[in-house]
What we know:
Layout: H1 17-37, E1 43-45, H2 48-58, E2 69-77, E3 80-88, E4 98-102, H3 108-124, H4 131-141, E5 162-169, H5 175-187, E6 191-195, E7 200-207, H6 208-219, E8 226-234, E9 247-249, H7 264-273, H8 279-284
Parallel strand pairs: 6-9
Antiparallel strand pairs: 1-2, 2-3, 3-4, 5-7, 5-8, 6-7
Amino acid sequence: MFVTESIQLAITKDMDPSKIKENLESQLSELETLQSMYNPGELRVEDLNVLADINAFVDGRTSDLPAYLDLTLNLSIDKQKFELCINLSHEYPDVEPDIFVRNHKLNKKQHATLNKDLTEYIASLDRMPCIFSAVTWLQDNAANYIIVEEVDEQRIEKDETLVRYWIYSHHIYSKSKRREILDLANTLNITGFCMPGKPGIICVEGTKSDCTEWWQTIKAMNWKRIFCKISEECKDSGESFLKFRTFEERVFQNCNVKCNHMNMGELFKFLEDHQCGYIFKDIFGVEAKASS
């Protein structure tokens, strides 16, 4: 089940609160422009509470830093449906927005290429509100990525080697990314878990072909830093290798209020419960003890 609890983001030490306010004002202005161009069925603010928190912060009614703003744009381009998942950090528009495009007719290679090219285009722009520029680029170029591929008559038999990938990310906040991580894992019959926050940890296990497809798609998104830190493999296709029954998002909060960092003791206990406690030191470089 997708965890809808918002994860509070900590203010970066080298960011001036007045600069964050300026950036959020720019985001609200850009959102207002987009709302004048698209109807509610096309443009969706994923969490209206976050939008309210941003307005309260900008108006000076609170000093609590709001969460990142998540938007979704549903577009019809050449009779094809495209979904743009947009995440705006507190540094936007001084840094690139986090945008990921989905289309159910694109295969993993086409998805990866499209998102890579869009990311490079956005990076080439001057730092300014650029969501509409990204939309215009997609409208002009989307058709180049929808290519009907012929089925190879001599398809290679699916690799049934079982693997487990331990993925480490600088952070996982974006709701659109978290949803894609879950949806794709469930589509590919992958088990494991995703721990959002800072750092973000993901474990995926299943057949090598399924896990590789999942990883190629997810890492093509725009990340500050993400990599596969540990890879385990079992060529005996026995079920004993698999440690998880489903794929789920797990949040290990270390206090009763919204937190940025996860409780590592609770994570270690969770890993121990799934016979994976040994991996904690390999991931973080330190020994751990389960929370009492």
